Every structure is written in C-alpha cells, then in structure tokens.
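Dear V.,

Thank you for sending over the compound details. I've combined the ligand you provided, flavin-adenine dinucleotide, with the protein sequence from our construct and run the structure prediction for the complex. I'm sharing the raw inputs here so there's no ambiguity about protonation or stereochemistry in the SMILES, which I know was a concern on your side last time.
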Amino acid sequence: MPRSTTRYPNADSLIDAARNFRRHHLGNERAAQWENERQVPLEALQLAAGHGFTGIEVPLAHGGLDLGYRAKLRLVEELSRTCMAFAFSLVNTHNVAAKIAHHGSSTQVEKYLPELLTGKRIGATALTEPGTGSDLSAIATSARRVDSGWLLNGEKAWITNATVADLLLVYAQTEPNLGARGIACFIVDARRRGFDRHSAYSLLGGHAMGVSGFRLHDYHVDDSDLLYPSGSAFKSALNSINGARTYVAAMCCGMLYTGLELALEYGSQRRTFGQLLSSRQGLNWLLADVATDYEAARALTERATVKIEAGKDAVLAAAHAKKFATRIAVTRLADCIQAMGANGLRDDIPLGRHLACAKIAHFVDGTTEIQNERIAAALHDTYRPL
Ligand SMILES: Cc1cc2nc3c(=O)[nH]c(=O)nc-3n(C[C@H](O)[C@H](O)[C@H](O)COP(=O)(O)OP(=O)(O)OC[C@H]3O[C@@H](n4cnc5c(N)ncnc54)[C@H](O)[C@@H]3O)c2cc1C
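Below is the predicted structure of the protein with flavin-adenine dinucleotide bound, written out as structure tokens.
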C-alpha cells in the first residue's frame, strides 16, 4: 500500500509542490471556469490526490505522507490563494481518509483507504440536515438496529462534495432519548441501494465544493461499516472541529494575501491624474489597514495551530481565529477590489470568487455566532480581574 512515502522529505517541500500545483493545475482561468460552469473539478482533485494531498495526516504505513496538521493547514492556505472551493473540497476527502486511517478497523482501512488516497473515491462528512445545522445534537437521521447491521433513514443537507462523493461519513441517531450520546457515525457507500443524491445547490459562489444533500431510505449498513459507535461519534466530531475552524481561518488568509498582492500590483501600474496610484496616501493607508488585519488573522491562526499541534485545548483559540479571519476576509477583500477600481470586479482575477468564498467561510464548521457563543461562555474565566 505505501505510495508516496518518500515524495516529500518535509512540509516545506509539500508546500512547494502545492504552489506548483496551484500555478499549473488550478490557475484563475480554470477556477473561474469551474465556478461559471458550476463544476466540481474531479480531474484536478484526482491529480491533487496523486500528489499525496489527500493523505497528509495519513500514516506512512497506510500509504499517506504523515506530515501532520500544520502541513494540511499550509496546503489549504496555499491552494486557497487561487481557489478556496477546490481546497475545501479536497480537504473534505482528506479528512475522511485521515479518520478512517486513524480510527477505522483494519478491514475499513484496507477496503476504503487506497481509493481515497488515489482520488478514485471522493469523500464527504455529513452532519447537517434540513432541520438542523448549528445544533448538531438535534440531528434526526435515524439508525435502527437490524440483524448484522443498521438501517439508516433521513435526509442530509449542505454537504460539501455531496454531488460527487461516493464515500460518506454519515452521523445518525441510534437512540433519540440519549441526545448527542446516541449519535453514531457510519461509512456510507453512495453507489448502494437506498442512497438518493439531490442535485447541486445553486449558491452565491463556491460551486467547486459540490454542495448538495441526499436522502437515505432504508439504507443498510453492515456492522463492519460502523466507524464511531454511539457515545464516541459526537465527541470525535467536536474534537476535529477546532482543526477545521483553524484551517478555514488559514484559507481566508490565503485569499486575502492574493487580494493584497493584486491590489498592490494594480496600484504600481495604474496612473490617475498624472500619478501612480501607489503614490496616493489614501490608497496606501487603506492597503496598510488590510495588511494589519491580515497579519492579525495570521497571528490568531498561528496561535490556534500551535495549540492544536500540542494537543492542548484549542476551543477558544480556534473560535477567535475563525471569527476574525472570516470577518476581515469579507471586508478586506472588498477593500482590495475597491483599490482596483472596476477592474477588481472582473472574473479574470479571483477576487469576486474569493469574496463569495469568504462569506461561505462564515458558515462552514460552525458559524460566526457559534464562535461567539464559545468565546462568550468563557469570558468571565478568561478575563478575570487582575
Ligand atoms: C458551503 C457550505 C458547505 C458546508 N459543508 C458541510 C459539510 O460538509 N458537512 C456538514 O455536515 N455541514 C456542512 N455545512 C453546513 C454548516 O455546517 C451549517 O450551515 C452551519 O453549521 C450552520 O447551520 P445552519 O446553516 O443550519 O444555520 P442555523 O443553525 O439555522 O442558524 C441560523 C443563524 O442563527 C445563528 N445561530 C444559531 N444558533 C445560535 C445561537 N445559539 N446563538 C446565536 N445565534 C445562533 C447562526 O449562527 C446563523 O446565523 C456547509 C455549509 C455551507 C454553507
């Protein structure tokens, strides 16, 4: 099974490869085409998997790169400089592979991991439902015990990669009286009977994420496809959420860096009233404010990353990073567009796509308000009188 073990001696070389990949296989033109044609770029996802990008946190023994969380975060930040939607789709498959690699049985690892690592199968993680999003403990998709397995019934909504995924981690309620403790997580093969995919959602942007929903109707899961039993599934979802919030913050930093880069380049070439825009204090101060927010978002993201890497409690650090980075990505990308005049609106530059994805980032892996809930709940303990 080992496939890419010697490809990258360290995370820096992985990021060099990601930069090359971004330049040669993403590129604004392609990303704009995916957006305009509302495509999930399966070929590019497979190519990325071929570079090892779906196995960054997967152990070497299982054919992954074993480069750790920070390498994954840096990879999605780098790819988001051109297309956050692509990076988000990719990391969702990666996360399914990593969960199976670290928590799956040997049968699950053998059966599912190779095809996730080669990009032959696309993964998705499905918690959200038409009736509940922020309150995950309220999911209504049911899992009923039957001989040698479970019958799943219900509907999932707003799932990244749902239009193309063939391997999904589905969270379902085994015992409604138990609330969050009754939730279990099952590996669902979308090619089997009882799985009905909905068509792609039409959104503000981010169509390369392939967001949609699906219905399960008496879908039979064998016992061997239970990934997390009730009691541990909800905890495991919460454990991974701080990492997800922090890499979403990093993705916003990646998009904003591109905004700054493009606005500075425009200002150094464009003349108004006989002078270069880059000589105008008004514009430079605006971009200086963008740079300060960018640096602050990176610093918060770094603080959360250090805690996650050290296995420390990262709830607050991740909440601060995600709340701040997603907020400033929207306002400061708009400032970068403003600094480029009408040209900032063209779709041969990525800022319009980035702005839409920055807004989307406010919702994925917990909304801004949910980050505030976490921060507010800890205010008195965190900021005691000195
Ligand atoms: C592009 C995209 C991709 C996604 N991908 C996935 C995926 O792969 N898998 C998955 O399971 N889900 C996914 N989601 C769903 C996402 O996790 C939910 O949208 C999110 O959890 C919020 O749920 P909701 O949209 O139902 O909002 P609601 O829960 O209906 O909330 C509505 C509003 O009320 C606010 N609110 C809720 N509770 C409180 C409170 N206690 N106090 C104050 N304000 C509150 C919310 O912040 C929000 O502003 C995705 C969403 C998007 C947009």
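A first observation: The chain has eleven helices and ten strands.

Warm regards,
I. M.
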